[in-house]
Amino acid sequence: MRVTLWFVIAAMLAIHVPVASGRTIIVGPHDSIQAAVDQAAPGDTAAVRPGTYHEAGRPCPTEPGNSCAVVITKDHISLVALAGPRPVILENAGGQEQGIAVAKAGAAGPDCLTDQSQRINGALVRGFTVDGFDGDGIFLFCVDHWRVAGNSVHDNAEYGIFLPTAGQGRS
Length: 171
Description:
single chain, 171 residues, mainly beta, 6-stranded parallel sheet, 2 helices, globular
């Protein structure tokens, strides 16, 4: 009985243990936010210094025919604006649908509700000003255990922050 109880407790703890703290990748005003996100492994943070950023963009994960400024397709990535005398501003470089898109590449429609391979587990977007995108400022699609906090979104054509089919999380 004790062995069974110990095994059950150990299994429950293993399920709820968060990803170990990762490294922090610092992004300066002349660096690319996307390059830092690409370098990041699960548990890492891309920390962005104050300034205005215009990213080259890449295909949006859920709509590859459109361009997104910053794309996160991995689990447990944090994208954080560092405090400073000025804000961290992400502006549309021209023709970009979404500012910050968090989704698995190829995730589509309601399929992600039942297909775990299409879901992202763990995402944080904090402290950004996201301006002027043709669609959404911040877009999380099929993401569980997410947090979007302290962001300011302006003049985006559709939604400032859009969370379709997002699971448990908070803003």
